Amino acid sequence: TLPFEKGSVPSRKYQGFWYPEGFLPGAMAIQQRFKARPDDLFLVSFPKSGTTWLKALVFATMTRKQYPLARHPLLSLNPHDCVAYIEERFAIGQASKVEALPSPRILSTHMPYSLLQDSVAGSGCRIIYIARDPKDALVSFWHFTQKSSPKLNKIPFTEAFEAFCEGKFPFGPIWDHLLGWWRESLKRPEKVLFLKYEGLLEEPVANVKRLAEFVGCPFSEEEEEGGMVEEIVRLCSMESMKSLEVNKVRKHGPIYQFANSSFFRKGVKGDWRNHMSPEMARRLDVIIEEKLQGSGLTGWSSQ
Ligand code: A3P
Q1: What range(s) does the Sulfotransferase domain occupy (predicted)?
Q2: pLDDT confidence of residue 9
Q3: How far apart are CA 86 and CA 89, in angstroms?
Q4: N or C: at which end does the chain have fewer Cβ atoms within 10 angstroms?
Q5: Gap between the Cα atoms of 126 and 33, Å rounded
């Protein structure tokens, strides 16, 4: 059992990754029998890396011709209700509902590459991976556990930190998660887009244009001149999402329940500074640098 999960929902180690028990049957079913369609789009992440934001941005971008932004479903639905989380759906017996979704499907997963590879191999589907500074993902997860149901064990941050450094973390180790998808994005850049949360924060407009091109629905000159990209960024921004009524009420997750509001906390880069000493940050940096060494994936050093 992982420290977060003492006396509550345990994770199990499956093919090198710690998978929360509620989702593991779903991940295994997907691995064994789910085949992606050529026009599927997968949004993939290690938890607390910007999944909710990416879901909102991609969904708004891809449905912009269907719904005027002023009356967009994202104003009354949480982003997680707009993009299906496939391990969860499969785990609760809704595989057929996922199969029945009309194309093009937008699906989300926390599966590491090694578990999803057979499902996507040869399909031609597209994948967007969002990565975040592991220090911030850890801090974000630690806060998130305070708000879950069934309750995850509330442990001191230092204990969470130790577990994270050892790779004993839900969906972890984070470095193997990052590496699997990073390498695939280098091999097949036309099909796997690797984004960073920090990049989205710094240049949201440029990145939304980039993802629109990647998914095959680039913004026209007219749309750009009319400020469409900026409007999408605004609709999906932390301030806008946080203030919506739907994101203040409870989410009824079928396995684990989280308040919709718990997906919107600070939304900044570097909140780890409020939780880690410089020594702790350096120690985690060294682990991450060593694990990612030679991959070309860098940029999260605390120095
Ligand atoms: P913090 O806890 O650091 O604030 P995920 O969606 O993968 O669960 O990740 C949640 C993290 O993304 C949280 O980080 C959350 O605040 C942040 N987030 C959610 N929506 C966001 C948005 N629209 N813009 C920026 N960050 C957002």
Answers
A1: 38-296
A2: 63
A3: 5
A4: C
A5: 19
For residue 1, how far is its CA from the centre of ligand 1 (angstroms)? 26
For residue 36, give the nearest of 171, 214, 192, 170 by alpha carbon: 192
Of 80, 78, 82, 44, nearest to 63 by C-alpha is 82
180 ligand 1 Cβ < 6 A: no
CA of 48 to the centre of ligand 1 (A): 7
Do the Cβ atoms of 112 and 251 come closer than 8 Å?
Answer: no
Q: How far is the CA of 260 from the centre of ligand 1 (A)?
A: 11
Q: For residue 73, give the amino acid letter.
A: P
The two three-digit tokens of residue 32, written as one number = 């064994």
Q: Give, using CA atoms, the residue closest to atom 27 of ligand 1.
A: 267
Residues 6+ apart with CB under 8 A from 217: 61, 62
Nearest C-alpha neighbor of 212 from the set 52, 69, 204: 204
Q: How far apart are CA 123 and CA 161, in angstroms?
A: 38
Instruction: Give the HSE-up count for residue 12: Cα atoms under 13 Å, Cβ half-sphere.
Output: 9
State the complex-level ipTM. 0.99
User: Which positions are catalytic?
Assistant: 110
Q: In percent, how much of the chain has pLDDT > 70? A: 95
Name the burial class of residue 57, with classes exposed (0-12), middle (13-18) and buried (19+) by CB atoms within 10 angstroms of its CB.
buried
Least Cα distance to 18 among 161, 115, 151 occurs for 115
Q: What is the Cα–Cα distance from 2 to 113, expressed in whole angstroms? A: 22
pLDDT tens sequence across 216-275: 999 999 999 999 999 999 999 999 999 999 998 777 788 887 889 989 999 999 999 999
